[in-house]
């Protein structure tokens, strides 16, 4: 729990928590903290219960320890004071997870999320292992998730050049056109529903 806060319970309150994607400068492969701050701030303004930072959609396992801390500190600065932040702290060993938890607390996280190794069990096939060892692009799923953010969320957050900033960290495999079309159709429907839900709030005097 973040040391500056006092909670009457030790579990996150019920609601919708969204895993945040990570923005990279496509030329330098470094974090784009300006775009990231706008993204965190926008998400916190949409009625979500809280944010999950450093989960699988955030490409956590490709981030350095310093980058992980920087993102958590930025998230805390970008959202309201009492806004819940859950930090993904999964690692490759117990000691690494403990280290990530120790980093997350002073960086501003309220809670920690650990995915057990079994979470990836069915996906870790011999073919996946072979591809991983060859360091081939394997992140089609992340690219699709980020395409959805590029198409709808980033423009609302006022982030320019989102298509470039939201490419997954290298190496990655770009989403196919069929996947893009499917995402566009699904997100368009969700976007209309979001506008319908928020409309009464936005027009209220």
UniProtKB/TrEMBL annotation:
This is Dihydrodipicolinate synthase. Pfam families: DHDPS. It comes from Exophiala xenobiotica. It comes from the Eukaryota. InterPro entries: Aldolase_TIM, DapA-like. GO terms for molecular function: 4-hydroxy-tetrahydrodipicolinate synthase activity.
């Amino acid at each position: 729990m973040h040391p500056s806060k006092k909670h009457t319970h030790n579990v996150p309150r019920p609601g919708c928590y969204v895993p945040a994607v990570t923005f990279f400068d496509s030329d330098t492969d470094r974090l784009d903290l300006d775009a990231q701050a706008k993204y965190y701030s926008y998400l916190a303004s949409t009625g979500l219960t809280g944010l999950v930072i450093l989960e699988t959609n955030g490409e956590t396992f490709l981030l350095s320890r310093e980058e992980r801390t920087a993102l958590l500190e930025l998230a805390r600065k970008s959202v309201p004071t009492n806004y819940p932040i859950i930090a993904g702290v999964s690692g490759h060993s117990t000691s690494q997870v403990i280290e990530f938890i120790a980093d997350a607390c002073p960086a501003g996280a309220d809670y920690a999320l650990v995915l057990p190794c079994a979470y990836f069990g069915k996906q870790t096939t011999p073919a996946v292992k072979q591809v991983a060892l060859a360091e081939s692009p394997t992140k089609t799923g992340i690219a699709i998730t980020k395409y959805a953010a590029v198409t709808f969320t980033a423009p609302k957050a006022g982030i320019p050049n989102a298509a470039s900033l939201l490419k997954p960290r290298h190496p990655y495999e770009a989403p196919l056109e069929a996947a893009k079309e499917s995402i566009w159709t699904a997100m368009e429907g969700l976007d209309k529903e979001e506008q319908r839900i928020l409309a009464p709030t936005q027009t209220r005097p």
